[in-house]
Amino acid sequence: MNIKLPEEVETQTKTFFTAYNKTPQQQPVFLHITHFEGDGVGNTKHHGGTDKAVCVYPFEHYEKWTTELDLEVPLSIPAFGENLTVKGLLEDDVCIGDVFQLGEAIVQITQPRQPCQTLASILCRPDMIKKVVDTGRTGYYLRVLKEGIVTAGDEMLLIEKHPARISVTESNQIKYGFVIDAEKIQRLIEVKELAESMRESLQKRKM
């Protein structure tokens, strides 16, 4: 579990306001409807809110990125600015609308995480956004259905699989145009648990 309040960060190319450089926590932290206590976002236009209360990134991707980016020093958690680094819950394995127990809280997957320029700037890789999109290793966002205390080491335990069974991977493929199929797009739009901003984006594409 990783949190950070926004701060000014200076990279090789720019200075900006962000909560990307999150710090791992060992003590219990309360998860509110929109955020972990002590966490925040720098850009409230594109980040945060009820549909993006928690950012999740699979642990398994770290080794792949270290190899593919030819890094001498492995990336350290949370290099992708995630609140939660999870094992066994890859984009192929989880679906939009799936519900999980997380400590005392109950959370639900809403959409794939959309990589932004902050990621590229902090990792000093201008090509990183494209690489994340092309590989589908985006991670994903959660909304909070029930607030509660979360402690480091708490597992995300599946308690309800969404009947539509549209995985985060398939959602990524639709979102970024790798799948151009009106029926599949409409099927995703009709998942009421989908984040509203993504639904609006897909509806505009259909027009």
Task: Describe the model.
24% of the residues lie in helices and 24% in strands. By secondary structure, it is an alpha+beta fold. The chain has a six-stranded mixed β-sheet. A two-stranded antiparallel sheet has the order 1-4. A two-stranded antiparallel ribbon has the order 2-3. The protein is globular, with a radius of gyration of 16 Å.
Topology diagram in text:
Layout: E1 2-3, E2 7-10, E3 15-18, E4 23-24, E5 29-31, E6 54-58, H1 61-68, E7 84-86, E8 99-102, E9 105-112, H2 117-122, H3 128-135, E10 140-146, E11 148-150, E12 156-160, H4 168-175, H5 182-189, H6 196-206
Parallel strand pairs: 6-7
Antiparallel strand pairs: 1-4, 2-3, 5-11, 6-10, 8-9, 8-12, 9-10
Protein name: MOSC domain-containing protein
Pfam families: MOSC, YiiM_3-alpha
Domain MOSC: 23-159
Series of H and E elements:
EEEEEEHEEEHHEEEHHH
Tell me the overall shape.
globular
Looking across the biggest beta sheet, what order are the strands in? 7-6-10-9-8-12
Radius of gyration: 16 Å
Distance between the termini: 40 Å
Mean pLDDT: 92
Protein name: MOSC domain-containing protein
InterPro entries: Benzoxazolinone_Detox_Enz, MoCF_Sase_C, Pyrv_Knase-like_insert_dom_sf, Tri_helical_YiiM-like
Organism: Fictibacillus nanhaiensis
Pfam family, one: MOSC
